Amino acid sequence: xxxxxxxxxxxxxxxxxxxxxxxxxxxxxxxxxxxxxxxxxxxxxxxxxxxxxxxxxxxxxxxxxxxxxxxxxxxxxxxxxxxxxxxxxxxxxxxxxxxxxxxxxxxxxxxxxxxxxxxxxxxxxxxxxxxxxxx
Length: 135
What we know:
Blueprint: H1 2-14, E1 18-28, E2 31-41, E3 46-56, E4 59-68, E5 74-83, E6 99-104, E7 109-115, E8 123-132
Parallel strand pairs: 2-8
Antiparallel strand pairs: 1-2, 3-4, 4-7, 5-6, 5-8
């Protein structure tokens, strides 16, 4: 009883977590490879949902919906890391960005799409962080 009350209190203090995942498979050189996307938001007013993942010509694309459940705009910082088939994080190429900022209006939903930088990138881990706008 005490433990569940403590977990609820910690959740209320630090916000809720919303996570969404998607996966698929493709054949590469006769071998079945799983590709996937996981999106996580640790922000109370930001929900992530409806993650899709697909591949075309060996390149993986992840798409997810982000929703601002607050009445005020929120500036969102989205970061991601691509992993290879063995789960090893891929090094970023010079000039390649692995983050972006979006301003999501109050009660707005928006689709975000992220494309893999190479054919070797098959898994993406996406994190959503935000700061309330003072606009």
